[in-house]
User: Which sequence fits this backbone?
């Protein structure tokens, strides 16, 4: 048997041995991801969306199934969502300011606009490819009109996040300038992403925008009124001083 034939047979044997092992290698299952969307308008609104894959949803249902009947009921689902909302309010901090940041406060102190949730109720045991669940919270961050920057620190770990994204949408009121994970790494792109891989590290988000133009109309109105009163007073005095 020639050297070339032996080499070919050896290579084929290696491939045959490796084939069964490689056939069992599957891509990692995504557990959960989140999307944070900041809308810069008259109000600065944060929408926090969490999506759970079937394996993570199964775990959440199992943990929330307090009566152990194998099904997450409506009441149990509401309790799970309440725990998520409480954890989110305590785990996310934010600060804003003009030219610099003020003190940080917790998301729990913001104004909650609404919550939308779907897919949480159901049997604990789920096929891997079953539909997952989704929950979205919206918050008015109560940013002062003159502020031109915002920082958000997110340490949420109420589910096992694998991937996160941030989007910033601006309006005519506030024009987006830059976004980054630190003040020294700000870029003009309005999207930011990172890989969590199940870790509970704190992630920072920094956003800057052009502040809304100050409305000078009230000052102008006041000036006109003061000028009118001054003219009226002067006219009245001149009438009184005329000789009779």
Assistant:
């Amino acid at each position: 048997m020639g050297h070339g034939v032996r080499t070919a047979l050896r290579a084929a044997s290696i491939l045959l041995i490796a084939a069964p092992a490689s056939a069992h290698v599957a891509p990692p299952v995504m557990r959960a991801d989140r999307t944070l969307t900041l809308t810069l308008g008259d109000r600065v609104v944060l929408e926090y969306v969490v999506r759970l894959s079937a394996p993570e949803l199964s775990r959440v249902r199992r943990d929330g199934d307090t009566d152990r009947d194998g099904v997450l009921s409506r009441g149990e689902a509401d309790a799970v969502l309440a725990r998520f909302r409480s954890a989110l309010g305590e785990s996310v901090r934010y600060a804003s300011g003009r030219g610099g940041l003020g003190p940080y406060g917790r998301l729990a102190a913001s104004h909650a606009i609404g919550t939308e949730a779907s897919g949480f109720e159901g049997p604990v045991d789920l096929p891997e490819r079953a539909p997952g669940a989704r929950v979205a919270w919206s918050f008015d961050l109560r940013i002062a009109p003159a502020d031109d920057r915002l920082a958000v620190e997110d340490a949420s770990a109420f589910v096992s996040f694998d991937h996160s994204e941030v989007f910033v949408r601006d309006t005519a009121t506030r024009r987006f300038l830059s976004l980054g994970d630190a003040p020294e790494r700000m870029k003009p792109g309005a999207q930011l992403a990172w890989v969590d891989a199940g870790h509970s590290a704190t992630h920072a988000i920094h956003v800057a925008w052009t502040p809304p133009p100050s409305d000078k109309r009230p000052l102008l109105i006041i000036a006109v009124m003061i000028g009118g009163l001054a003219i009226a007073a002067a006219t009245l005095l001149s009438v009184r001083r005329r000789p009779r």
Notes: Residues 217-241 form the longest helix (25 residues).
